[in-house]
Amino acid sequence: MDEAQPKLEDFEEPTEDVPQKTLPAGLPSETKKAKVQGNQELSEKTSAVKIQAWWRGTLVRRALLHAALRAWVIQCWWRLILPKIMEKRRHSILDTFQQEQWAAVKLQSWVRMWRIRSRYHRVLKAVRIIQAHWRCHSCTSRGVIKGHYRITASQMHLELEIFLGSGPCIVSECIPLPIKQ
Predict the structure, then answer these.
(1) Any bridge partners for residue 151, and if so which?
(2) What is the tens place of the pLDDT at every residue in 103-116?
């Protein structure tokens, strides 16, 4: 097997087909061999350094590719999640706004209802006082008082008929109720 592999001496012999690199004539043959071996060792070292640099570059490029792919996956995920987060935030803000609006409207309606009821009770009290005085007066003067009232959403209609000795007296009154619509 040793004979089948080419030796270094085989390469030093000039061949007819390939032009050979010639060394300066003044160098002895041993120096020539040492120089060729030194060049070959230098060439092997530079080849090894180049291969190592290529491999390190490949590893760095691979690491950068993996990092870029991971960043891209995270960006895609964030682009999917961000609209959902924004929608939840918008929905919670709208819910809060709606609750505040509902509370304000409810409070306003309670205040309006309280004001209308208090006015209605004052008017009703006044009507009852007037009725009581007229009833008392009619009994003493032998007159008759008839009357009725009707309350609608915006006003109160009051109609009184008073019959005394001299003749009938009809009182008709519409009292507006302050209702905000």
Answers:
(1) 156
(2) 999 999 999 999 99
Instruction: Classify residue 165: in a domain, yes or no.
Output: yes
pTM of the model: 0.37
Please check whether residue 179 is in contact with residue 112, taking contact to mean a CB–CB distance below 8 angstroms. Answer: yes
User: Which single residue is written with the structure tokens 């004539």?
Assistant: 25
> Are 143 and 164 spatial neighbours (Cβ–Cβ below 8 Å)?
yes
In a domain? residue 77: no
Which residues on adjacent β-strands are paired with residue 161? 146, 170
| Domain count within the chain | 1
**pLDDT, tens digit (0-9, with 9 covering 90-100), for 47-58:** 889 999 999 999
Is 142 within the bounds of a domain? yes
Radius of gyration of the chain (CA): 58
Question: The dihedral of CA 40, 42, 43, 47: what is its sign?
Answer: positive
CB 50 within 8 A of CB 62: no
| 177 vs 153: CA distance, rounded Å | 8
Q: For residue 170, what are the domain limits?
A: 108-176
Domain-located, residue 117:
yes
Whether the CB-CB separation of 131 and 158 falls below 8 Å is answered with no
End-to-end CA distance of the chain: 114
| Residue 158: count of CB within 10 angstroms of its CB | 19
